[in-house]
Every structure is written in C-alpha cells, then in structure tokens.
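Dear Dr. H.,

I hope your travels went smoothly. While you were away I took the liberty of generating a structure for the chain from your last submission, since the lab meeting agenda had it listed for discussion. I wanted you to have the full record in hand beforehand rather than looking at slides cold. The sequence, exactly as received, is reproduced here:
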Amino acid sequence: MDFTLKEKIIIAIKYRKYKFIDDSRPQFNGETLVILPDSDIAFEMAQLFYEKNNENITFLLKDSICSFYSTDIINKSIKYTYNNMNTLGLPRKIFIEKIKSYNFENIVDLNATFSRFGAFLTFYCDPKVKMGFNYDNSKKYYNVILDSNYQQDLEGTFKMIKQFIKI
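The corresponding predicted structure, in token form, is as follows:
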C-alpha cells in the first residue's frame, strides 16, 4: 500500500519526534503484546497463544470485535477504538504513549496484510523485537519478518514466533 505525498508529509510532521530513541527509557517488562487482526484466523491464533502461555501475553484488540473472543482473552487485552486512530488510520500520539508506558519487550503484529495501525504502532513503540508478516516494505516496520502463509499452519507459526521471543 503506497502513501500519497500528502499522507507522507503529515506522517513525517506528526511523528518525527518518535524517530529518536531516548536512552533514559525504563527497562522492558519481558512481556509480549500481540496485535490481533480483524479476521477469523485471529480467533484461533489468540486462543493458541492463550493456551500455550498466558502469563506474558497481552492482546491488543479492537473493541468492535470483542464479543467474538472468550472472556479469558478479553481480560488479557488492551482494547482500542476508532478514537485511538487519526484520519489516516494511524495510532494517535496519546495511544502510542499509553502502549509505550507498558514497556513491552516484544510486539507481534498478526496482520497478514498491511495494517497502518499495527505497523506504525509497532514501529513507534520501539520494543526489542518487532515482529510481523512479510509484505511490501515490511522491513521498515519490523526487525523479524515471518512467512505469510500462517493461515495453513497455526501451530507451526506459533513455534516460529516462540523461537524469537520468550513465551
């Protein structure tokens, strides 16, 4: 997905202060934030993450689809709404600061296709491991890129993710 020149300028102006890494930031908490997409495959993947390790996992979940998830997963979730997005579909500064305050060590974006919200949130929160799936320009946002055919083998994808992060 390409940005128009106007969108590139708006993004550069609004988010330029996040490009610089502050050395005085607190230590990571050792936990993982899993950004769940809006597709049905996310229900099964979230359940798999929860069953395998529920202590160090927090989910980022859109409030409009909460009713499809189990109560256990909802209790382990940070919910966001359309109010947490700007008109370009990017996370607002206040929401970025909220997620940064948790000091997540790892962020896993499970969107198989490009999601502006998930990619930019992962990029600007600056965890140790920024993990996402392979698509155009994914190297700009993630330092660990996963194979995009995870829909066929959820267990294999979970094992792949587990190799890179401590869960």
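Two observations you may find useful: The helical segments are 5-14, 41-52, 71-75, 93-101, 116-125, 154-164. The two ends are 32 Å apart (CA to CA).

With kind regards,
E. W.
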